[in-house]
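JOB MANIFEST
job_type = single_chain_structure
chain_count = 1
residues = 283
[input]
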Amino acid sequence: MTRSPDLPPDAEARRAVAPVLCYRNDSLAPPRLSDLARARVGASRIEKILVPPRDGRCFHVPAGHFFRISCTEGPQVGDLNLWNADNLAERFYSGKTRALHGTHLGLGDRLWSSFPQLRPLATITEDTLGWYGTDQHGCRVHDVIGTRCDPYTNTLLTGSQYHHCCHSNLTRALADETGLPLHDAEMLVHDVLNVFMCTGFSPDTGQYIMKASPVRPGDYLEFFAELDLIGGLSACPGGDCASDHSSDGANCSPLLVEVFAPPTPPRGWVAPTENGYDRSHGT
């Protein structure tokens, strides 16, 4: 039996220390949302992909184009991966995105790429759930907390084999899109943006919690592609994630992905360059 540690005499003083931000992001150039909005006017749809329930699909977005993820039938959350189309090793880095912008993303936030490039892959330009804010349970939408439901954790906790977890859906989708062997594609699948998912942390244990998504047909999240991208989206087997995931028990619906080409590039926009660190690591 583990013995509880003794309470030190200065415990309350230690707890009262004021927090500070780990990463101040005010040195980052803000997204030029008005220029992006003007470029979006008159954009034509060039591709439409329907992601079936409990499955995944990949899609391509050229740099300087927009893509939209929409709820079309019933409440449904989606797990999003992004890769640099010219270098799949450069992919969405949810942890650093979380450190720079917060646990949940919204209008104007960027989806940052992995090391060593560490640059924006996409910028959020529209969010019809931006009204939701923080609810009485401390939950918000579009999180970069959860890693994605996966068959390994499911087997660990339940002992069962389930193959339509978001990790497996994204693995199959990327293998189909690229022709990579399944196990090679799996190594490129990464932590996600949980689109439309409503999540937070329990106040007592600090565990990751979820509740029914507020998304409804007609809601969408739209992005501007900063680089040529391959996207992967899984329509989560948890449906709206009201009670469960990694099973066939939830009501699930498809998700729609649309890609839009603007008439002209946004004013002043240039594709982001790779991170300027010299990679000498002190040697």
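[summary]
The mean pLDDT is 96.
Residues 90 and 258 are 23 Å apart (CA to CA).
exit_status = 0
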